[in-house]
Structures are given as structure tokens and as C-alpha cells.
Amino acid sequence: MITERTLPYWLLAPSLVFLIALFAYPFADAFFIAFRADGQWTFDNFRTMVDDINFGLSLWNTMLLVLIVVPLQIAIALTMAMMLTKIRAGRDLVLYVWTIPLGISDLAAGVVWLALLSERGYINTVLSALGIVDGPALWLSYETPVALFIAVILAEVWRATAIVMVILVAGVQLIPKEYNEAAEIFGASAWQRFVKITLPLLKPSLQTALILRTLLAFEVFAVVVALGGRDLPVLMGEAFLWQFDYRDSGVASAYAVLILLISIAFTLVYLRVLRVKEEAE
Amino acid sequence: MAAGIYVDKVRKVFGTFEALKSVSLDVQPEEFTVLLGPSGCGKTTLLRIIAGLETETSGELRIGDKRVNGLPPRNRNIAMVFQNYAVFPHLTIFENIAFGLRMKKLLNSEIEPRVKKAAGMMHIEHLLDRYSAQLSGGQRQRVAVARALAMEPEVLLMDEPLSNLDALLRLEMRAELKGLLAESRTTTIYVTHDQVEAMSLADRIAVMHGGHIIQYDRPIEVYQNPANAFCGGFIGNPPMNFLQAERENGHCRIAGAALPGPSASQGNGRVTLGIRPEDVLVAETAASEHLTGRVTVVEPLGPHNLLTLAVDQQLFRVTTAADSPIKSGQEVYLALAPERRRWFDTESGKALH
């Protein structure tokens, strides 16, 4: 029955049921499907996945995207967070404007950038009006993979840097300003204060932001599809293709398991590298 | 090398609030100056301006021979102890103390002996490998002071360094700091709102109130000859007594007695008499120049008794011997030591001589 002792569990129960039913169970199911074919335990699905012509390319593209986008986002978000600490008047306004992309779904973000970058998009219009290009240039075609890749990076950075910034801004606010003042008194330049005081004290927030962003970056999908269709294969896109176009849940699940394993590996690395020594908390 | 500090007509305005109203202060090399005042008086603002953490609105600042207006803190050859210690949590105590030396790009072989020496002075050699979170408040305070001493600065600035310690520890650290800083002969500016701390540590006290320095003098002078009624009331525990008096032909009438008034500025009108509780003798018989008062409260404090009286319906405090037989409700007569009477202009509060 509901007593003071059991009440917390009752209050937790709905979310727990929700998570188990809609997250843990489907997940276990996907795992199960990935290792089953023809009623037997097997690695066949993984073999099919690896042998597929797009597998190597999609793995490479995804990795490269993550390795470029995430550090870029961290750097930009750190810069934004540090700039915010210097603003007094209008700080909230700037913060709100910077967080607008947070409210936009990734597919919508892809479409926005499509409108900018397509053959008849804004950017081509401006460039040809200025006489920089003769007629519309192709940015998003399979013939211009580098331009397409850069476009995806741009859209991803635009779309998802704000969440990193919000985490870092919250973290920066938690650092008492006396640490910075003490460092200043004891001879540290602005850059030294950033490297020796702010960054180390920001470690817990950096860790959170990195884990969150990296996991989401491995699931990059909608922006890529909106901008490049199938011209830029990524892991999540392949999973989608196998599930809905090739109607092969086994291979789709194998992709999902692969993404999960990579995500876990990266998370463990972050937890290890950015750990805060217990005594230094 | 200790350097003097010269503050000339420094003003500081925050928005519409004038925190410092043309403050001037000179601190001699090796001198220990305490900025004393209630919160909001501008003492911390003045210290932060000297440190370079805050920019003055106008006025001039010199440390030694160098004009430091506009110089960043790191070019002022100062060290500072913060109220909340500001011991970096992610560095060991050794690295905390070494921080300023590392910023100066000293060699490890120079840093280590200086860190050890500073740690030795503060008796924290055994804590060098630990982190701030593993230390008590008092130990962190020691680290903050050691970090400042290791710099061997020309000027040491301390912002209420003892205010976060408990009373007993504060007493202990106060005496220790005094010995240590006298030995190191560093020019020091020390901010506090604790008048006992100021009295005990300072070569000179600058009493601040409302963005002004009201008096800048040796502690005993500030105590005995306050420049105005505020100084008299702020310093001393219990504070100076004030009684309103009516001036008549060079004499002042208070509570039925006629006392010789201040020699300067003859005339009529109201003046205020100030006298410290320990400069009053309680008698049970009347005499000329004795004030009459009724005891309302007797507080035995151990070494002495604190009497609260109503004199002419004004609050008055006196200390008496612990074995004094005087009881609450009793009518007594108060003999004010003639050489300790101080007179103030009732309107402006300024001392009259």
C-alpha cells in the first residue's frame, strides 16, 4: 500500500513503466532480432551488413562527421559561453537568440539549409547576383561530395551547437568568480586563466556535453537525408534503408547494435579521460 | 621589497551609486593599514581598485614609484588573500601555493624552496599533496595566505580573510598573522568590519563610512579621539556613549549636571558628549559634575559587569568591577573622567575640540 516509504516508488513507477515498455523492451527486441535469422542464433545479419557496399562508406562518413562536428561544436559553444560571461546588458536576449535552433527539429533544420544551398537556393541567388558564380552551382550533388559533406557539417553545427552551449553556460555560471580573480592577481593572462582555471573546473559540464553530443552525432540522419538523400550514406541512414526499403529488420537491427556499441565505447572513453579526481571535487 | 601605496582622490561609481567619494590614502612601505567600516562603506571596493580587479572612475593610484592606473593586476606586484580563500579545487595545495610562481615562469628548483618556506610559515607542510576539498576552513585560509606569501609581493591585500572562521580560530589566526606579517615586513592593506581585528592588527586604521575615509590614524588615536560620532560608535565594544547636551555660556547641561564644554566655538545650541564605558566611575553619592542615572540592566560578563542605564532618558553603558554591589533599578551617580570627555557637533557629528 501507499505509505511514506513506498510513495517515492509509486511516483517513479509510471516513468519506469514507460521506459521499460517503450525503450528497454524494443531495445532488447532489436538486439534479439540482430542475432537471429531463420530461427537460429547467428552472425549472418552482421555479415550481410559488413559485406554491403555502403557499409564502409557509411561508417567512415559517420565517424568523420562526428570527429569534425563534435570538436567544432565544443569549441564554438565554449567561445559563445565565454563571450556571454563578458556581456552585462542584453545577455539574456543573446542567449535566447542563440538557443533558437534548439527548438527546431532536425528534419526542419535540414530543409532550411536545403533552401539555402539548393540549386536555386538563396546562396546561389546571392552569389550569381554578385557575379561570383556563373549560373547556379551544385553544392549538394553526388558529384560534389566534399561540398555536400561541408553542407551537412554546417547544418549540424548550426542546429545542435546550442545544446552544448546551454550546458557549458550553466557550468561556467557555477564557477565562483573568485577563482578567476585569484588567478588574475597571481599573474595569469586571460588565456592562461581559461586554460588553467576555467577549463579544468568546467570538466563535469564538458563531459556531459561531449557524451550527449557524441551520442546524438552518431545518430545523425534527418539532416543528411534532407540535404543529400542517399548521396552521403551514414550508419543511421543505412539502418533506415534496410528496415523500410529492403524490409530486413535483422540487418537494420545489426546497424542499431553497432551504433550502440560505438556510443558506449565513446562514453567510456569520455568518462575515463575527463574524470574528476574524487579528492579534487 | 615593500612599496608604499598612494591613493589620490579615487572615485568609483556603479551606475547611479557612488561607492567611493574621492578617497585619498597613503600607506607607507612596510605599514599595516586596516580599512574598517560597516558593509557597504566602500572598503572592499577600494581594496579591489588597488588590486586592479575593479577600475576606478577617476583618481590616481601609485604602488611604489609606479602609477598603476589601467595596469592589470598581474603587473602590480601584489598578492591577495580572498574572503572565501579561492583555493583552486583542481590543484594540489603545493600547486596552489606555486601558482603565482609558475605564472612568473620560475624554475622548479626556485619554486620548490619558496613553496616549502611559505607552507612552513603557515604550518601546512604536511598538507602539500592534498586537495582543497580535503582541508578544513582554517587550513584553506592558511593555504590562501601561504600562496600570497610565496609571491614575496611588494604589497599584500587581504579582504576579510578571517571572517569565515569560527571565533576561536579567528583569535588564533589573528595573533599568528600579526607575528608573521610583522616579520615579513610587507606593506599590507587589510579589509575588515571587525573593529577588534582592526585594533589588534593595524599600524593605522582607516575608518570608512558612506564612501569616505572618516579618520586615518593609529588605532589608539582612533579609539580615544574619534574624528566623529560614527567612529566613536563603531569602534569599541560596547561602543562610546553619547549624551545630548544643551550649551550655555561655555558650560553644557546634561542630566542635571553642568560640565565645562568644548573650548572651541563658544555659543549656545546642542552638542553631544561622548565617553567610553570604561571611562566612567559609578558612585553611590552625588557630587558636582556627576550625572544621575537609573540602572536598567546588570550583565555580569565575568571579568566585569556591564551596566545599562537611563541617563536623562538616554541609553548609557558603563562597566564596573565584577564584585560591584549595584543592582538593577538603583539610582547611581556617574563621574566622567575629565580628560576622556569628547564633544561632537550634534548636527554634523564632527568632533569639537
TrEMBL record, chain A:
GO annotation, cellular component aspect: plasma membrane
Per the record, the GO terms for biological process are: transmembrane transport
SUPFAM superfamilies noted in UniProt: MetI-like
Main site of residence?
membrane
Protein name, UniProt field: Sugar ABC transporter permease
Q: What region holds the ABC transmembrane type-1 domain? A: 59-270
Protein keywords? Cell membrane, Membrane, Transmembrane, Transmembrane helix, Transport
Q: How does it sit in the membrane?
A: Multi-pass membrane protein
> From the record, what ranges are coiled-coil?
none
Q: Which family does it belong to?
A: Belongs to the binding-protein-dependent transport system permease family.
What is the scientific name of the source organism? Pelagibius litoralis
UniProtKB/TrEMBL annotation, chain B:
Task: Supply the InterPro entries for this chain.
Answer: AAA+_ATPase, ABC_transporter-like_ATP-bd, ABC_transporter-like_CS, ABC_transpr_MalK-like, ABC_transpr_MalK/UgpC-like, Mo/tungstate-bd_C_term_dom, NA-bd_OB-fold, P-loop_NTPase
Provide this UniProt record's keywords sorted from A to Z.
Answer: ATP-binding, Cell membrane, Membrane, Nucleotide-binding, Translocase, Transport
| Keyword Nucleotide-binding among UniProt keywords | yes
Q: ABC transporter domain: from which residue to which, for each copy?
A: 5-235
Q: What's one GO MF term for it?
A: ABC-type transporter activity
Q: Which GO terms describe its biological process?
A: carbohydrate transport
Q: Which family does it belong to?
A: Belongs to the ABC transporter superfamily.
Q: What is this protein called?
A: ABC transporter ATP-binding protein
